Amino acid sequence: MEKIAIQRIQSLDLLKGIVMVIMALDHTRDYFHYDAFFYKSSDPLQTDAFIYFTRWITHFCAPAFCLLAGVSAYLVGMRKSKKELSIFLLKRGIWLVLVEVVIVNFGWFFNIHFGSIPLGIIWSLGISMLFLAAMIHLPFKSILWCSLLIIFGHNLLDNIHFEDNLLWAILHEQSRFTILGGRKLLTAYPIIPWVGVMSLGYYFGSFYQKTIEPIKRQKLFTLIGIGAIVLFVVVRGINSYGNPNHWQSYDTILQTLFSFFNPRKYPPSLTFLLMTLGITFLFLGNSEKLKGRLVNIFRVFGKVPFFYYILHIYLIHLSAMLLAQLTGFGWKVMLLKRWVTGVPELDGYGLHLSWVYVVWIGIVISLYPLCKRFGQYKLDHKEKWWLGYL
């Protein structure tokens, strides 16, 4: 049984690692892709298959990682009392919120004045942990039903709007606000759906107990994955509830498919979550026996996702600063007051998408030895409590 437990954790590390690597592709594209400064990669009228896929594949990162954060919370809770787990989640949630606003924010902009403050994925994970700290005290089955109610029901809130209401924007509507001396706050990741995804992960974390046979878990996750994908096609095809932005028919089949497979992400609609979590569950149900050198490489990143996340932002931004200097734009243009793709001074900056992939691979390779060394350090120093927050 101990062997099964180790293999189980390896599959989770594998998925975390894959998510981290794919996520870096999207962020590299933001800072390096020439076309990113002119149009949205998901626009059916302007994009092409290569650009669209590069953006689309990264949609899986946030839902998968939020789900896995819930799974990890359950596994941590197996060694703690409910009270201890709640305290841990509260502390870690507050820590992640602070990290988003200060460390992550500075990495995106390199602006000591913090003129723009997007509340992104790390922030949403932190807030979701604060909610989960309370939800774990519900009857266990109730956690599942609450999660499903949030995921399947939150689109009922789509037509509710409150003008200039920060609380509502934090909960369910991506909006911009001017705060604290003219700083721009963006509620990039409204939290209601993410709370449901994390608590869903917490519930399914129970299937990683040693008393659960691996084959039972694998079959269940595979069925859930297939069911979610089929439901995505049905709900998206009906083109009514589940996504406020309906898909449209275009002149070509490819453009229509671009529209169909582009459900709303901010906040994540029901169809977006069915599409992404369906693939996530399919992977979890069919990856536990995967082995090999490539698997081990991904697991290196998956063991230290927070460390990797922070480093990759700074490395991408520093690399973009170097490219700007080498191509005549000057490194100072990368001291940003707004999101990089909205800077007019960068008109004409950037690389062809093929070269963006080269830069991405180079960044991931550069991070590998650092992540491997830090992962070993965490393994060798389990007595250091603060490593649990990294």
TrEMBL record:
Instruction: Give start and end of each Heparan-alpha-glucosaminide N-acetyltransferase catalytic domain.
Output: 8-211
Question: Among its keywords, does the record have Membrane?
Answer: yes
Membrane-crossing segments per the record: 49-77, 89-110, 116-136, 191-208, 220-238, 266-285, 306-329, 349-371
Any matching Pfam family? HGSNAT_cat
What are the alphabetically sorted keywords of the record?
A: Membrane, Transmembrane, Transmembrane helix
Q: Which InterPro entries match?
A: HGSNAT_cat (IPR012429)
List the PANTHER family hit by this protein, alphabetically.
HEPARAN-ALPHA-GLUCOSAMINIDE N-ACETYLTRANSFERASE CATALYTIC DOMAIN-CONTAINING PROTEIN, MEMBRANE PROTEIN-LIKE PROTEIN
According to UniProt, the name of this protein is Heparan-alpha-glucosaminide N-acetyltransferase catalytic domain-containing protein
Q: Which organism is it from?
A: Polaribacter filamentus
